[in-house]
Amino acid sequence: MLTEVIPEVRRRYAVSDDPDRWGVVGGSSGGNCAFTVAWHRPDRFGGVVGFLSSFAQMPGGNPYPAALAAEPRRPLRIFLQAGHRDLGWDRPERNWLAENLRVGAALAQAGYDFRLVLGDGGHNPNHAGVLLPDALRWLWRAAPEGPSDPTGPSAPTGPVALTGPAG
Questions:
Q1: In this predicted model, what pLDDT tens digit does every residue of 26-56 receive, in sequence order?
Q2: Cα–Cα distance measured from residue 98 to residue 120, given in angstroms and rounded to the nearest whole number
Q3: What DSSP designation does 12 have?
Q4: Which of 24, 67, 70, 106 is most exposed, with minimal Cβ within 10 Å?
Q5: Euclidean distance between CA atoms 124 and 112, whole angstroms
């Protein structure tokens, strides 16, 4: 990403060096990858959007709930989407819905600026496609002056939107 993709983007476009203006987006395994890239390189990517992220299939288990609790807060703004009928939704192990909810809860407890949107679907891109424009607007919105209204104009489309401290 840093040695091949970004140099090619910079060759073609004038882009900011400010990590708050850079984000990484992905769905399914790409959602987990987007989160991981931003987690390890917050100096380059200040925002992340993960749709139906595959935290449940990470080798050795989902490290992020424990890491979010144990490590210093990173300068990240995070938008996650989960489907209440995602893969394994009715199983105790490898439950993609449960792992996304665990990451959302850990983000809340750690005080991150995040949004978790829960949809009524399974593991498909339908809800993500509807959410993407609002997710990007939310990711690069101005910093709020105080607590925001999660149902206001910047709220993403979806049945449930949970937000962190900065709304």
A1: 999 999 999 999 999 999 999 999 999 999 9
A2: 14
A3: H
A4: 70
A5: 27
Which of 64, 51, 53, 28 minimizes the C-alpha distance to 156?
51
Pair of tokens at residue 98: 């449960």
Within 13 Å, how many C-alpha atoms sit on residue 97's CB side?
A: 16
What values do phi and psi take at 127, rounded to 5? Answer: -65, -40
What b/e readout covers 122-137, taking b as 16+ CB neighbours within 10 angstroms? bbeeebbeebbebbbe
Q: Look up tokens 């709020």; give the residue.
A: 144
- How far apart CA 61 and CA 50 sit, in angstroms, is 18
Q: How far apart are CA 69 and CA 50, in angstroms?
A: 20
**Do residues 78 and 107 make contact, with C-beta atoms less than 8 angstroms apart?**
yes
**Among residues of the chain, what percentage have pLDDT more than 90?**
66
Query: What is the rounded distance in angstroms from the CA atom of residue 66 to the CA atom of residue 123?
Result: 25
Q: Determine the Cα–Cα distance for residues 156 and 159; give it in Å rounded to an integer.
A: 9
